[in-house]
Amino acid sequence: MDLLTIHLTESDERKARWSLFLGITIWFLHLSVLNTLVSVSCKWGWLTYPVGRLSGLQLAETIISVTAMLAMLVLTYVPWRIWQESQTEKPTENPELLQETEEDSRPLLAFIAMLLNGLLFLFVIVAFVPMFALKACGQA
After folding, report:
1. What is the phi/psi pair of residue 139, to 5°?
2. For the segment 116-134, what is each residue's pLDDT rounded down to a tens digit?
3. d(CA 97, CA 35)
4. Alpha carbon of 84 to those of 21, 49, 78, 97, 135: distances in Å?
5. 60: CB partners within 8 A, 6+ apart
6. What are phi and psi for residue 63, nearest 5 degrees?
7. What's this model's pTM, rounded to 2 decimal places?
8. Do residues 27 and 64 lie in contact, with contact meaning Cβ atoms separated by under 8 Å?
9. pLDDT tens digits, residue range 6-19?
């Protein structure tokens, strides 16, 4: 029985580490791809065709951002489940929630991954503001 518990703990810790690493990587790639698309669009005139009320660039940026948001949601949910499993009671009824999180590295790592991926998810949402509020390359 102890071997099974240890194995699950190592598996959960591995999932939390991968979630943390992949969340940062996806956020970085999201910003890099968006900036590259804007540069390519400005330099060579790519993605300037209209698609409804949007430009091709705005549509491509929206598709990339929504994909990144879905990935970030999954990468926030996985450590949240790991963190929830490590709690002895429901979070609303547990006055020692933070102490239980700090006691072991697994729930602490899961909490950090959950928090960071949640914040990076918000940064991906905020990236929509310049997409629609500003015109790329000063286009009218």
Report:
1. -70, 145
2. 999 999 999 999 999 988 8
3. 41
4. 20, 47, 10, 10, 43
5. 37, 47
6. -60, -45
7. 0.82
8. no
9. 445 778 889 999 99
Q: Between 84 and 74, whose confidence is greater?
A: 74
139: left (phi over 0), alpha (psi -120 to 50) or beta: beta
**CB contact at 8 A, 59 and 51:** yes
SS3 for the chain is CHHHHHHHHHHHHHHHHHHHHHHHHHHHHHHHHHHHHHHHHHHHCCCCCEECCEEHHHHHHHHHHHHHHHHHHHHHHHHHHHHHHCCCCCHHHCCCHHHHHHHCHHHHHHHHHHHHHHHHHHHHHHCHHHHHHCCHHHCC
